[in-house]
Amino acid sequence: MNIDDWKSQIKRGTLEFCILLMIKQQPSYGYEIISTLEKYPILAAKENTIYPLLRRLMKDDYVSSSWQESAEGLPPRKYYSITDKGIEYISAMSDEWDNLLNAIKEIKGA
Amino acid sequence: MELEKSLNEYLEKIEKYLKPMIVSERVDIVKEIKSEMLELQNNGISTEQIIDRLGNPKELAKAYLGEAIAKNSGFNWRRLSAVIAFYSLAGIGGMFVLPITSICGIAFMVSGVLCPIAGIIKLVAHLMGYEIAEIGISIGTFSANEIAFLPISILIGAIIFVIGWLLWKLTIVIIKSMSQGKKKLDQ
User: Could you say which of A4, A46, A74 has the minimum Cβ distance to residue B42?
Assistant: First the structure.
């Protein structure tokens, strides 16, 4: 049984959704997003996945970004926040996600 | 706050690998990675662990380039240089398959454009009383005259151009599959 292969496919499809949900909750910076994802093994992903993904979400106008100074002794951070287009995208993804869960539930049988 | 020497070297490598990107984007990427390095350093993480966490600078740069190339499918020179930079980092598959598909793609597209131009030159020369024997078509005993040559050259040019375009598309598809492959997420 090779569950890892399947898990990585699930991750690929859901990472974008989860990152957008996190950014919608509150503006976040890259390392913060990566650390939060690390708490969930199914979602954990490295810098070389997350940073390019954030960049793409930005180019697609789902998120915007701004550099902000941090407390003394800490480096400036690049914060990502959700855009109106991003909120629409999340809501469309949420609908599809519910559809998927319902379908699985029905197929499994009550 | 100052970065350790080896971390600065890491950033210099990223910067070098990302040369085909526009300056503002490249500076922003390096700044963001630097910000994370400082944050980790501040949390007491050792330089070795930081480098270990970020992985090979080549792989990290490749992930950025791959995403940038996959983003839009049009053709322009900046994109071409990004493609070249990408396959120079992409290893064996990139060293053979991608150069062939991308170079043939571009060569076919250029030839496709040149072909009808040659047709026009031949026709114009003919109308002005010159015969250019170097340009023409002959298949077996058939050879087209100056007038018939133009539409034939346009048709052939169009076919060659489409083949070139498809090869270019194929290049993009291969890069997409390489950069978004599961290998990256499995790490």
Answer: A74
